[in-house]
Recover the amino acids of this structure.
């Protein structure tokens, strides 16, 4: 499903460049759930950006379902995200002027799905928010906003789910409920899940745990890795 | 308070540079208002002073006999009165040379305005008194030169022999641009009696000039009320302002309209600038509130910031405007009194600064209120896409500010009707735009729910951007629509005015105009002129008559003051005679070709006809030399161009005036050099004929109006550019949130090309709707202003209006869209990073 070959990435800081990723190699199978953990600034989000095709590596190649991302144009990358990915943000990033239903409908409408409203309603029901479909984001709690964001990410049944600290802005109970929802939907859809998190318990629920440190990726159990 | 000032200043130093749009809008807006206001004021005062001098007073009552003593007492009780007695007569020299002159006798109050200068510089009374049994006189130097008269020579007027003792070097109530009369000769009242010219049938004019502080129109109305049966002609100094003055005054008014429109557009820029500035401050505001700063204190901090930046900008704008108005006044070269310049230009500059600051605070208030409504809770969530609303109290503050601005505008503007119409127009405009916004939303929503549009995501997105909650439609349309409408209105006004200015100087003016040609002199004169190279010579009779009845009834004396006045005036009547005045018909037409039935027909000048209330088809009765003449009104004409001709008020069908004609006027088109020779020739051939060369007048008028037109074009171009910049900035700033939305959409998989297409569709829709709206409404606003404020013919300059409407909206929206598109080289990474 996902293959990274010697991926390197650096950012310019003043006059020099700081390497965030150094020769990262990674294989993730379809349907697998993978947690990426590491200290702040270790490159977790950068890795997610690269996987989403929202940034380009300085070195190496990334393949999603055997498609090399560096060979795709911006529009083709957008199509890839539209058809093959769902992204969940730590800060939800719902469109404030759209209702919960409007937000969830978006990916289907982008894809030109004629049955968008019905599918979005169904997804909202699955995340337990069918009674809030006409509410605007500011009228929802943090947990509800994240559930809408998850519904938006999964409404088009993407084979790949990228989640950046999905429970980072939520309290423990709400975070737990949201993570249950995410994993349930992942299981039901059979999607591949790549999860960036600081939450050890959340990482432990994934099939594999990867630790980013000093730009390198180390594989192992979360509790051992975070030690 | 000290802490708040310190906080405001520190915060401003850190991020105040982002308020540059506010500063630019205010500096430019205030500069234009101060410059145009100052220039307008100087032109107006200059013209009024000039008009008063030319008229000899604030009002003039003209009669054919001395007024009864009760009338003179009535006038003296309401101002200072000066009597000038005029009689046209022949003056002979010792060599036998004879010339028609205008003999004037004035009292000790003459002139009421300005100074009479003689050469040698002696008092008039001393010059004209009886010495050694002989009265003296002062005369026109040009006439003296032409007749070879020197100081000390004797001339004969009527039954009296007088000594020439002085030449008139400056006479304030005579100017070439005002009236072309016979050359003046000034004598004493006793001398005039002794000339025996004051006979019962002689054409003597008694002009009572009045200097008063009262409103001339009120004074006039009171006179008509007190002496309802009188037939005296009354005119005010305002009536006498010539066509050039009228154009300059119109240019001044148009400048003021452009200035205020620019300030309003600048106000919109202020609103958007403050909103954008405070949008970036939401985090700071939320933080300050979370650490315990009260709402009132927060409001003071940001109001202080706007006050500081706005105050500085307005000061700079006022100084620049003041300087520009001084330069402009010199450029326009109006007859402005030196000591009044500073006062004339300073007050508008101060007022412009006050207006600017008040406008800034008024437009900034809703943005500040909106920013202050941010909940500190957002600190714990995300500031992205935070929705803020303007609290009611801030709207009330805005409303109060707006009312204050309007009241001051109404109080200080010289023309309250103009001010009221401007304020009313802006308010009406905003209300109408709000209606349009709602209509578009409804339409977009309806279209968006239709299946075909749902299938095209770009169109769906474009429509959704128009109708959805929090859409930028209202802000865009209210801003762009109102500004664009004012721009279109200004463009129509300025274009029409520039056209009129261009048309004021006729492409072809006669080189020589002649008055008082006796019927027997016509043929000889024409032949002489042709021999001297004239390519065209027109002669037309000049008959004076009074309009005494319309459709058999007396003119309605209870109607407007203008109508009353016009009904009292003697009109200059003539024949068509090759259209000697170069008039154009604006209503009705010339009379039928076949006039064999003997009926008399007439066409009237538009200003006279409108003031009296004449309509095509009316039967008019004129009293000419105590006989009545009836003529059917077939058309209304407009005098065009500079007053280089005769300004006839009625043109009658051939033959009907024959029995009344005692003199003709003529116009000759010939090379300038030949005109000089011809003038000398005419003086010898027909001394009674007064001839005037028009070349100098036309050149002076061309120069003056050319400068006015250039000034108008420059100011309009600057205002246009300013508006364009402000609007482009406004369109871009309104759309900052759209970048955020688009980033999310792109991250979710929407192609950039689709997002761009949807934005393109939205902008095209907006441009189309706004342009059509602005075009229609702008023209509707401009036309009444053209008619009532500028008193210009109702013309619709199609291309300038179309270019202004579609061009500006397209450029602004394109620039706004381009800015957005460039921002759409998005950095979705920022979303994942939570930035």
């Amino acid at each position: 499903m996902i293959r990274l070959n010697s991926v390197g990435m650096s950012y310019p800081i003043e006059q020099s460049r700081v390497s965030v990723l150094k020769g990262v190699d990674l294989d993730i199978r379809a349907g697998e759930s993978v947690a990426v953990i590491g200290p702040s600034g270790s490159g977790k989000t950068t890795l997610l950006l690269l996987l989403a095709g929202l940034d380009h590596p300085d070195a190496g190649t990334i393949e999603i379902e055997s498609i090399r991302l560096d060979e795709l144009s911006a529009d083709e990358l957008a199509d890839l995200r539209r058809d093959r990915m769902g992204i969940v943000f730590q800060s939800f990033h719902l469109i404030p002027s759209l209702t919960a239903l409007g937000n969830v409908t978006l990916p289907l409408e982008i894809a030109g799905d004629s049955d968008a409203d019905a599918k979005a309603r169904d997804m909202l029901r699955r995340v337990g928010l069918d009674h809030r479909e006409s509410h605007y984001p500011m009228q929802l709690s943090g947990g509800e906003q994240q559930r809408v964001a998850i519904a938006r990410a999964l409404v088009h049944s993407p084979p790949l789910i990228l989640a950046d600290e999905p429970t980072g802005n939520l309290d423990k109970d709400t975070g737990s409920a949201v993570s249950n929802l995410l994993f349930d939907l992942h299981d039901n859809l059979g999607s591949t899940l790549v999860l960036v998190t600081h939450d050890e318990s959340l990482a432990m629920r994934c099939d594999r745990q990867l630790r980013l440190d000093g730009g390198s990726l180390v594989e192992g159990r979360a509790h051992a890795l975070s030690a | 308070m000290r802490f708040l000032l310190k906080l405001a200043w520190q915060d401003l130093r850190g991020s105040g540079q982002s308020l540059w749009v506010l500063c630019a809008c205010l500096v430019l807006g205030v500069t234009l208002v101060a410059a145009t206001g100052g220039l307008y004021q100087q032109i107006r005062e200059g013209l009024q002073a000039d008009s008063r001098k030319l008229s000899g007073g604030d009002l003039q009552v003209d009669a054919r006999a001395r007024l009864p003593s009760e009338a003179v007492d009535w006038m003296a009780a309401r101002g200072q009165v000066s009597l000038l007695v005029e009689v046209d007569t022949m003056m002979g020299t010792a060599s036998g040379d004879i010339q028609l002159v205008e003999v004037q006798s004035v009292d000790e109050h003459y002139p009421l305005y300005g100074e009479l200068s003689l050469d040698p510089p002696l008092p008039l009374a001393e010059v004209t008194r009886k010495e050694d049994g002989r009265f003296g006189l002062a005369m026109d130097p040009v006439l003296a030169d032409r007749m070879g008269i020197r100081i000390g020579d004797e001339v004969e007027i009527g039954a009296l022999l007088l000594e020439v003792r002085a030449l008139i070097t400056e006479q304030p109530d005579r100017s070439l641009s005002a009236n072309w009369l016979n050359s003046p000769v000034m004598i004493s009242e006793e001398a005039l009696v002794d000339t025996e010219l004051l006979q019962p049938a002689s054409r003597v004019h008694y002009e009572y000039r009045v200097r008063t502080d009262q409103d001339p129109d009120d004074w006039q109305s009171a006179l008509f009320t007190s002496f309802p049966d009188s037939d005296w002609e009354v005119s005010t100094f305002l009536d006498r302002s010539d066509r050039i003055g009228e154009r300059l005054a119109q240019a001044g008014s148009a400048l003021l309209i452009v200035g205020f429109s620019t300030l309003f557009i600048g106000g919109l820029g202020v609103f958007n600038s403050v909103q954008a500035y405070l949008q970036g401050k939401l985090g700071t505001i939320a933080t300050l509130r979370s650490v315990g700063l009260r709402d009132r204190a927060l409001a003071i901090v940001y109001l202080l910031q706007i006050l500081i930046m706005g105050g500085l900008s307005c000061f700079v704008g006022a100084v620049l405007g003041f300087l520009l108005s001084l330069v402009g006044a010199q450029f326009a070269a109006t007859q402005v009194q030196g000591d009044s310049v500073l006062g004339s230009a300073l007050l508008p500059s101060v007022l412009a600064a006050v207006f600017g600051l008040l406008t800034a605070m008024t437009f900034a208030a809703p943005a500040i209120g909106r920013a202050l409504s941010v909940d500190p809770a957002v600190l714990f969530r995300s500031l992205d896409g935070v929705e803020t609303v303007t609290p009611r109290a801030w709207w009330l503050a805005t409303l109060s500010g707006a009312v204050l601005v309007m009241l001051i505008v109404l109080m200080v503007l010289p023309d309250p009707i103009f001010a009221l119409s401007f304020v009313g127009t802006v308010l009406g405009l905003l209300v109408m735009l709000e209606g349009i916004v709602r209509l578009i939303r409804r339409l977009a929503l309806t279209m968006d729910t239709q299946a075909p549009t749902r299938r095209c995501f770009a169109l769906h997105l474009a429509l959704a951007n128009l109708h959805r909650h929090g859409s930028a439609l209202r802000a865009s349309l209210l801003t762009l629509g109102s500004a664009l409408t004012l721009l279109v209105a200004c463009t129509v006004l300025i274009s029409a005015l520039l056209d009129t200015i261009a048309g004021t100087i006729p492409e072809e003016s006669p080189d020589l105009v002649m008055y008082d040609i006796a019927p027997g002199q016509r043929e000889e004169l024409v032949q002489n002129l042709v021999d001297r190279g004239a390519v065209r010579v027109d002669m037309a009779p000049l008959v004076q008559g009074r309009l005494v009845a319309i459709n058999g009834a007396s003119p309605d004396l209870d109607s407007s003051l203008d109508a009353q006045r016009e009904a009292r005036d003697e009109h200059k009547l003539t024949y068509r005679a090759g259209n000697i005045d170069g008039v154009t018909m604006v209503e009705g037409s010339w009379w039928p070709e076949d006039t064999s039935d003997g009926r008399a027909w007439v066409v009237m000048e538009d200003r006279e006809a409108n003031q009296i209330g004449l309509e095509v088809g009316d039967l008019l009765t004129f009293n000419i030399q105590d006989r009545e003449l009836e003529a059917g009104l077939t058309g209304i004409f407009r005098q065009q161009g500079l007053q280089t001709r005769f300004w006839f008020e009625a043109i009658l069908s051939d033959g009907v005036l024959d029995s009344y004609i005692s003199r003709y006027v003529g116009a000759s088109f010939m090379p300038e050099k030949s005109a000089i020779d011809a003038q000398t020739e005419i003086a010898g051939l027909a001394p009674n004929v007064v001839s005037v060369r028009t070349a100098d007048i036309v050149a002076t008028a061309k120069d003056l109006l050319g400068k006015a037109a250039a000034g108008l074009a420059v100011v309009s171009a600057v205002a246009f550019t300013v508006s364009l910049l402000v609007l482009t900035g406004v369109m871009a700033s309104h759309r900052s949130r759209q970048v955020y939305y688009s980033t999310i959409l792109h991250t979710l998989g929407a192609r950039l090309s689709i997002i761009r297409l949807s934005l393109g569709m939205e902008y095209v829709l907006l441009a189309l709707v706004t342009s059509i709206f602005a075009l229609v409404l702008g023209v509707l606003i401009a036309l009444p202003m053209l008619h009532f404020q500028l008193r210009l013919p109702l013309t619709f300059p199609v291309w300038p209006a179309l270019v202004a409407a579609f061009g500006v909206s397209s450029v602004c929206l394109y620039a706004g869209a381009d800015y957005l598109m460039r921002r759409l080289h998005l950095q979705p990474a920022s979303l994942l990073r939570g930035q």
